[in-house]
Every structure is written in structure tokens, then in C-alpha cells.
Design brief:
Layout: H1 10-19, H2 25-37, H3 44-57, H4 60-72, H5 79-90, H6 95-102
Helix pairs in contact: 1-2, 1-3, 2-3, 3-4, 3-5, 4-5, 5-6
Length: 104
């Protein structure tokens, strides 16, 4: 078999983060850091996929960190972003934090 070189770009990382949603937020966040190390820009869709992994594991702290990191990078959070963040808080009864997102 011949070796195939796969170019690492933002689309590839989005696909990998999305595919690894069930792997938990640590994997997704590691991939986001790797993108940053390679000077690849993660878009809203990639952050949403990472936030979805937080939702699945009820890791509301990581979800809030991802949201803040998005906003710091001047990315637009959308309905899905907030849905994933709020749902990550739901099962841990972080309602006050979730309500605070509505007023920011």
C-alpha cells in the first residue's frame, strides 16, 4: 500500500471533532488546542461539535470555557452553541449559570 498524505486543515479537524463527540470534551478540546498550535482557525461549527461533546457528558465547565473562547476569538455563537452549553448544565442543576447566559 502506498502512503497517503492527509493535509491537516480546518475542515479535517471539524470532521474529526464531530466524529469524536462521544469521546468526551477532553478529546475535542485537545483537538481544538492542536488546531491552534498549527495556526488553523476553528469555526463556529467546530466549537459547536466540541460543545456537543460537553452536552453529552454534562461537562458544563468545559462548555462554558468553549463559549468564552469562541467569544474571545470573535466567533459568532449561534442557537446550537447556546443549546449545547445550556443542556450541559441541565443535568447538573446549574440553572443560575444557564439563566445568566440569557442576559449577557
Amino acid at each position: 500500500m502506498s502512503d497517503h498524505h492527509v493535509q491537516k486543515d480546518s475542515r479535517l479537524y471539524f470532521g474529526v471533532v464531530r466524529a469524536c463527540c462521544s469521546g468526551g470534551p477532553l478529546l475535542a478540546m485537545r483537538l481544538l488546542h492542536e488546531m491552534s498550535d498549527l495556526s488553523l482557525e476553528a469555526g463556529t461549527s467546530t466549537y459547536n461539535a466540541a460543545a456537543y461533546s460537553c452536552r453529552n457528558s454534562s461537562d458544563w465547565q468545559s462548555a462554558l470555557w468553549l463559549l468564552q473562547d469562541m467569544l474571545d476569538r470573535r466567533l459568532s455563537a449561534n442557537m446550537w452553541t447556546y443549546d449545547h452549553v445550556v443542556c450541559s448544565m441541565r443535568s447538573t442543576f446549574q440553572w443560575l449559570d444557564a439563566l445568566q447566559l440569557l442576559f449577557e
